Every structure is written in C-alpha cells, then in structure tokens.
Amino acid sequence: MKTKKRVITVGFGRKKTAAMLSVLGLSLTLSACGSGSPTAQPAQGGDKNPEVKLRITWAGSQVRHDATLKALDAYTKLHPEVKFEPEYMGFDTYWTKMGTLSAARNLPDILQIDTNILTDYAQRGQLLDIGSGINTADIDPSLIKAGNVDGKQYAIPIGANAIALHYDKVMLEKLGIQVPVQGFTWDELIKLAREVKPKLDKGKYLLQDLSVSISGNETDKYEIYQLAQGKGFLHTPDGKFNIDKDTFVKFNQLFAELRKDGIVPPIDVTVANKENDPKLDNLLNGTIMIQRGYAASIGAIDGVKPGQFGLMVTPQAVKSGSFLLPAQFFAVSKESKYPEQAKKFIDWFVNDVEAGKILGLSRGPQVSKKVSEALTYTDVEKQQIDLIQKTAPIANEFKSRPKGYGSFVGEYNKISQQIGFGKITPEQGFDELKKKWQETVGK
Fold first, then answer.
1. Are 270 and 282 in contact (CB under 8 A)?
2. pLDDT tens digits, residue range 29-40?
3. In this predicted model, what pLDDT tens digit does every residue of 75-100 receive, in sequence order?
4. Contact 365, 297 (CB under 8 A)
C-alpha cells in the first residue's frame, strides 16, 4: 500500500477565513502553521489556544486506516486547535519508512511502534518517557509492562493481542474437523494434517509450513513450538540468545519431512505468500487452511472473506505455546514540540469510550477495561475477545524484544528459507542464527 498523507482540519475554508479576517481587520501570521494553512477562528480577546499540528504515523489494513482517520476527525472536533498530519501505510513499507525518519532525526510526534523495535528506539534516546500524564489504571499491567524499557515507560499499548492460529472454518467443517476448545497438541495437529491430505484436491494443504519465515516478524512461527516444549522464548528476559539447538533442529527436520510427503506446501509456494493479498495470501486463496496468526489480525482477513475464518490457541506439548502481547503501541518522539498535547491525545485514544466506539477492534481488543465493557461486538470481534480470554490463563509471560531484534528477524527469515530450500542443514542454520544474533542483538 502506498503512503498516504492528509492534513485533517476543522473550521472555515481558506477563502472564507481570509475574507472574515479582512473584514475584522485582524492580522494573522501564517508561518506558525507550518504548512501555510489558516488557524482555527481565534477566540474573542486573543488566541488562547494556538494551533497545534501533530504528525502521526501508523501501519495496518484499510479497516484500521479508516477507523483511525475517523478518530482523528473526532478528536479535532473536540479540540479545534489540534490538527493532525497523518501518514499511514501497509506493514511491508512501514519500518523502511520509519528507519529513514529515524536516521534523519525526523520522527513524527506520535508513532505506532511494536515490541520488536521499541527497545531500539528507546535506547537510542529517540522516545519520550510518557509514564505520567496518561491514565493506565484500566489497562492490564502486563500490557503496560511490555512498553517499559530500562525502568521508563516509553510506549502505551493501543490494542490487546494474543498469538494464535487462523483457520478456515468453512473448509474444516466440510472435512468434519472439530477444533478443540483449547486447540490441538502439536502431535494431534501433525497427525491431522497427514490424515486429511488424501481428501484434499491437488495443491491444497491443511497446514502452513511453519518452519519458513517470509517477511515481518515471523520468528514466532518457530517460537510457539519452542515454548510448547518448555524451552522458553527465543531470548531470555534480559535479552540473551535462547534458541535451543536440539529443538530447532527437530522442528526443521519435521517440516522437511512434511514437505517431502506433500503434507505442507512446496517451498516455492510458501515463500510466494503475501499476507492479506486476496490472490497471494495462501490462506485467503485456499491453498492452506491453518496458519500462524494473531487475534488482532483476523479482522483483516475477515474483511476479504467475511465469516470464513476462525481463531484457535496455538498448539501445546509439555506446556502452552501461547502468549499475550500488545497489538501495537503509541510512542512520542523526544523531539516533539508538543509532548503534552501528544500525551493528551493518546490518553483519549485509549481511555475514551466514544473513541473506542469509533476504533472498534481495528487494532485488536481495546486495552481499557472500561472501554471494552462499553462496546458491542460483531461475531468476528467476539472471536478475538474469546481467544484472548482462552489464552490468558495459559500464557507465557512476554517481554518486549531486546535492542537489535528487528535486524535479527530479517536474518532469521533468510536463514529459515535457506534451510527450507536445502542450501544449508538445520544444524548449520542454527550456527548461523547464533552468529547473526551476536552481530545484531549481542553487540
């Protein structure tokens, strides 16, 4: 999706404003607006609320874009002095754009950020400590904790989330497959994938190849397996390398066998997947029926095929492979000229019931308990709430990723594909991952 930008204002049009000011004999300095646009009509006796223009960026689906733009409009109607300059795009281009802005020390006032990259931006001194001025009393403490780096609150969660499996409800029902309330074990899932293969048309598969990461943060395709084996996350709470070699090798050998037997798609089909593209997303185009996903992301695929998909908790083995996490955060640039106004907006965004009604679950379930309880939900939104409620009692405790993890993810994706294409062995892949960790995170 191409970057889109528009300035949201509330007030008179340019010509009408100029005419009124001329009649009143008032002078107006346009340079203070930054873009040359006129300010809102000044209050009688002087402008007590000078115009504030907040740059804000986020990534996601069209549903999220539309909902967020409506929320910005609503906020400006409440606070006419606050204007927004929004910039929004798909995930495939977002972090490239943010990297450019970060390097230029030109971050927007308010930016959407995630658990992979938060620590990088915080430890580079580019984010403001927003631990005061925003009400977090109604937000789950574990979600708030994920936005804390080195004892300071650099980010506020703006959506709740849980890792999950997306599945094609319609196809599984046709095959007579009943999804257990707490999901499958790993052994049950693999056995099921083998059993249903003869019933499927050529080129159709029950399960995604979870050993191959394509783009974005897909290290957790393997991570949910390692967690289920009782080996923890891919890093320790203090940011040390924690990929278990024996578990990693076993996992990759398992999926190599599944590829060979035609139980999961061929490697070239897997790497051609493009998330949320109706034609190239392997779940949306019917190539597979189960994939790794998130509670918060089912809305995007439901928008393409309403009522087609469901959510289940991730597979378990000796323990759960599930975890809860913020869907995203909002953070404030340390260079912002309007930090208090930015914090005031974020407080409204997460705590105001009317804001919650506008946003719905476009970023996953609302983080404020008060807001969440005030909303009514569609069937697909009820699925998200239900999945998070099922996950909460069995969730592994999640902590935001260490500095450099975003770079490590890119290296992980490359190495997983090299293993999938047979260019290196799983053992060699593990050694490469350990080396890349030292180069990206360990340094």
1. yes
2. 333 333 333 333
3. 999 999 999 999 999 887 898 899 99
4. no
